[in-house]
């Protein structure tokens, strides 16, 4: 069974506008995420915009689609992955020295059963895959931090 919330956070010595420019440009997602190889949006960045994504783990590749659910400039970007019903988000909070960036994966209503079966069969089981996702979130945030602080 999927955890309802996966979360990672980092403090970045850069203003929210600079961090927002990095996380809101979905073409850059493969530079941040160790799992994402492509995120292509169809239309402007706003609720309802669809994306096609390609993910990779070792030699296994799989496509997903998503829909942007929330866009609040310099504050929050969220999208729902259609195949498993999870919502991924980036939230930005101004701090005294820059920006606190939090990445989450919400699965309040669980993950679609077919997704759990695929994770169990092809990706080593839900608990270990979710551990990899959190590691990947931390890696993504550290890459965004490095780029924003350059």
UniProtKB/TrEMBL annotation:
InterPro entries, A to Z: Polyketide_cyclase/dehydratase, START-like_dom_sf
The protein's name in its UniProt record: SRPBCC family protein
Organism: Mycobacterium yunnanensis
Taxonomy of the source species: Bacteria, Bacillati, Actinomycetota, Actinomycetes, Mycobacteriales
